[in-house]
Amino acid sequence: MEIFELVHSDQQLIEKIPDTVAAIGFFDGIHKGHQAVIKTAVNKAREDQMMSAVITFHPHPSVVLQGKTDVQYITPIHIKAHILEQLNVDRLYVITFDKALSLLSPKTFIEEFITRLNVKHVVAGFDFTFGHKGKGNMKNISEIAQGDFKSTVVEKVTCDGEKISSTHIRQCLATGEVERVNSFLGRCYTIFGAVVSGDQRGRTIGYPTANIKVDKDTLLPKSGVYAVQVKINNVTYDGMANLGVKPTFQADVIEPIIEVHIFNFNDDIYGERLYIEWHKFIRDEKKFSSIDELITQLKNDEKTIKGYFEH
C-alpha cells in the first residue's frame, strides 16, 4: 500500500494518478461500520478494474475546530495504515486537517481531494460530511459532483442492536469492556509500543515484565489487569498486562504504565517494538498490604488468564 500525505496548499499533482474508487472518512478505530465502507470501495475497485484508496484526515478535526491538544486515537495513524493494508487497500491519502481545510467550501473540497485525485467513485458512511461547517454530505454530493464521479452511501452497521461508533468504543474502553470493543472492531483492540527499561522489580517476585512505551496519542483502556496477547516478530504469546500506577510500590506515579508478563518467555526484548492485543479485563488495579499478598493475587490472575485462553 502506498501512502501519500496531502495538504490544502499543495496544488501539485502527486503523479499520474490511476482511476480510483475511494472510501472517505476519519475512520478512527476502523470498526465494523468503517470496514463496511472500506470493503465496499475495495470490491468496487476490483469489479471496475480500478485502484482502491482510503482518504482520511489527521489530526482529528477537534484539534483545529475546538483547540484540543491532547486528542488520543483508537487507531493512531500508523495503526490505521497497518489495518488498511490488511484490508487490501492500494493507496492511503492522509489529508492534513488544518484551519485552511476547515474553511473550504464543499465544492472546492471535492475539486481538490476527489477530482484532482482522479477518484471516479466515492464510498462513504451515511453520516459523512465535508466542507465548511459540514455543509457537504452524502445527500448532496451527487449535486456537487455534477457527474464527475459516482457515489455510494453505506448505511449504519449495528452489533446486537446497537449502532457501532467510535464514540461508543471510546466509552467501552473507559470502562474496561474490551471484549465488547473487540466485537465492534471485528478484531482485538491493539496498541503498538516499544519495550523500555523499568525498575525490574517483577523479576524479584517471579513475574518479570516488559515495560511498554506507547505514543501519547494512543487511547488506552481503563486501568487494571488484562488478558493480552503479544506479537513479537510475527510470533504471538499469551500474557497478562497491568495498566496503572503500581500503587503497592509507588505513591507518586500519575501517568499509567503498561507492564506485560509474557507467559513462558525469557528472551531479552529491550528496544523491540511489539503489538499488544487486549482480550479481557480481569480486575481493577489495587494496593496490596504485602508482597506475599501481591504474589498470591498474581498467581490467581495467571491461572484465570491461562484458563481464558484455553477455552
Q: Could you characterize what this model shows?
A:
It is a single chain. By secondary structure, the chain is of the alpha/beta class. It has two domains: 2-162, 3-Layer(aba) Sandwich (Rossmann fold), CATH 3.40.50; 188-310, Beta Barrel (Elongation Factor Tu (Ef-tu), domain 3), CATH 2.40.30.30. It contains ten helices and 16 strands. The strands form four sheets. The protein has a six-stranded parallel β-sheet, sandwiched between helices. A six-stranded antiparallel barrel has the order 11-12-15-14-13-16. Helix 7 runs antiparallel to helix 8. The chain is elongated. The protein starts with a strand and ends with a helix. 30% of the residues are buried.
Give a brief description.
The protein is of the alpha/beta class and 311 residues long. It contains 10 helices and 16 strands. The chain is elongated and about 70 Å long.
Descriptive labels:
Rossmann fold; alpha/beta; 311 residues; six-stranded antiparallel barrel; Elongation Factor Tu (Ef-tu), domain 3
